[in-house]
Amino acid sequence: MERTLIIAKPDAVQRGLVGEIISRLERKGLKLIGIKMMGLDSPLLQAHYAEHIEKPFYQDLENFMKSSPVVVMAWEGYECVNSVRILVGATNPREAAAGTVRGDFAIGTGRNLIHASDSAVSGKSEVDRFFDDKELFSYDKSEYSHIYETHERQ
Ligand code: IDP
Ligand code: MG
Q1: Which member of 8, 19, 95, 143 has the greatest number of CB atoms within 10 A?
Q2: Cα-to-centroid distance, 84 and ligand 2 (Å)
Q3: Cβ 109 vs Cβ 38: under 8 Å
Q4: Which tens digit of pLDDT belongs to each residue from 57-71?
Q5: pTM
């Protein structure tokens, strides 16, 4: 099944919104397959945000992402990358829909609480970047028959 990397950013940790983020993904029906608290360093952030390194906001972004521990998670589910991006909301929280994490809880683009992978390919590569195999768990979730049609959980 598809995987997505979620980071509860330093603002989510500082504002006590980690549980809220986890709860929203749990209630959606997604499966948590890995979770840990980390302090991010420059090499990891430069790899993770490689597409943004040349942009004017990059240094502020890197400094911010190093300013506090973060909670990194791997989630799994049918077409979960797109589902989670919809739950997360637009990058600019002032344009994010009400009901999304960013729309409900954030204002500044550089303080938008959460990272979520933006494609199935990046979901796989980002999960592999942040987690060792032994930190990822494969298990049956008893509620699956009430969340998925049979063909969706193959
Ligand atoms: P995403 O997190 O919604 O995928 P990206 O465009 O990939 O958004 O940008 C990565 C992160 O960089 C954003 O979540 C935000 O924290 C930061 N960022 C993006 N654009 C800006 C900006 O214009 N000003 C400040 N920070 C920005
Ligand atoms: Mg992005």
Answers
A1: 8
A2: 12
A3: no
A4: 999 999 999 999 999
A5: 0.97
